[in-house]
Write a structure and sequence with these properties.
The chain is an all-alpha fold. Helices cover about 85% and strands about 0% of the residues. It contains 8 helices and no strands. The protein has helices spanning about 5-20, 25-60, 60-65, 70-75, 80-90, 95-105, 110-120, 125-135. Helix 6 (about 95-105) packs antiparallel against helix 7 (about 110-120).
Length: about 140
């Protein structure tokens, strides 16, 4: 067994032992995390992913890509990357990666292009910050 695997194994056994000794703490933390995800993150992210998928399926990506060709010059990415960049700037974290994944699975971009596009489409957008952090977590 490699040395790193040995330490990881010991760490996992320690976590399991801690859960067995004091399960009420971990059940409460798990419940709070699941509640946060279900009441704040899912309602914030779901509409963004739904509508960007709808825009992608309607074919609006070519219209946006033709108007905004700077990504091709700036990052040496395909022209269609302008659409993914625009959506990721507006929506935020998971939506940019989802758009890149959809473009790859639909055959619009290659695997190399998808990896390159993930570097500039994974950012925090105002919709995600306002919806999840501002409204959901800070109640503002």
């Amino acid at each position: 067994m490699k040395k790193t695997y040995f330490f990881i194994t010991i760490f996992i056994f320690f976590i399991i032992f801690a859960i067995i000794i004091s399960p009420q703490n971990y059940i409460a933390a798990f419940s709070q995390g699941l509640n946060t995800w279900a009441k704040i993150l899912l309602p914030t992210i779901f509409p963004l992913i739904f509508f960007t998928k709808l825009l992608t399926d309607l074919g609006s990506l070519n219209a946006v890509s033709n108007k905004m060709g700077f990504t091709q010059k700036l990052w040496r990415a395909p022209p269609i990357s302008a659409y993914a960049f625009m959506v990721s700037i507006l929506s935020g974290y998971p939506v940019g990666a989802k758009v890149v994944s959809d473009l790859y699975s639909d055959g619009f971009i290659s695997k190399h292009d998808a990896i390159k596009m993930c570097t500039f489409t994974s950012n925090s957008g105002p919709m995600f910050i306002y919806g999840s952090v501002g409204v959901g977590m800070l109640f503002s």
